[in-house]
Structure formats: C-alpha cells, structure tokens
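Entry:
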Amino acid sequence: MRTRDDILKEIRISLSIPEDTTEKSDIINFQNKVLRPILKQQNECFVLLFCHYIEEKRIKWTTSQPSVRIQIIGKSLRNDVQLKSLLIGSVIGFFSSNELKLYQAHKREIHKRIIHMIESRLIDQLINLAENQ
C-alpha cells in the first residue's frame, strides 16, 4: 500500500535545479527541491485565492496602476495574517513527513521564502493578466 508521502512525491512536479553546497544549503535545497515544485503546482490556486481576496476586501484593482497593484499584493501578504496563513497552508499541505520535520526546524525562514515566492508569482501573474485584458 502506498503511503501519503509516496503519493505526494509522485504528484509533485519535477524541476531540474542544481543542488547548492553553501552554508545554508539545507534551506536552499529545500526551497529548490520542495517549495518551487509545490508553488508551481499550486500557482493557479494562489491566483484564484488572491483574486477572491481582492473581491472580498473590495479592493479597487482594475482601476489601479500596475505599481499600485504591486503594492497591494505586497501589503496584503505582509499585513493580512489570515491570507498569509491560507497561502502558507496551501503549500505545507503538500509536505511529506520528512519535509515537515525540516519545516518545523526552520519554520520562520521557510515562511519568509514561501511568502516571497508567492508574492513574485502573484505579481507576475496578475500584472500580466491585467495588461492582457
């Protein structure tokens, strides 16, 4: 019988990113081997959740300039604890048991990396989406 960890690793997207051997290599390799594939896989979910957030908070998105949209994304991810927790949880749910152990040991650093990468993805996706409409 396949375990939860086996299933999670089977469905995870494979990215070819070279391993890092520097001082923070555990965290960097975790980011490249675990976080990046999960974020790529969950990208559409992040965009939909953030669009729902914009509607729910009645943020004037379509009339805002691209620079203001970037500020809205950054400010929302920094200040709205509920949104931040939802997005981080959307990533953590795809961690295997061993990955959860590393996550617990470096929770603060991994949270920062997750939010930074989600912010970059949202900016790329939503600014381009708005320009193409």
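Residues 27-131 form one domain.
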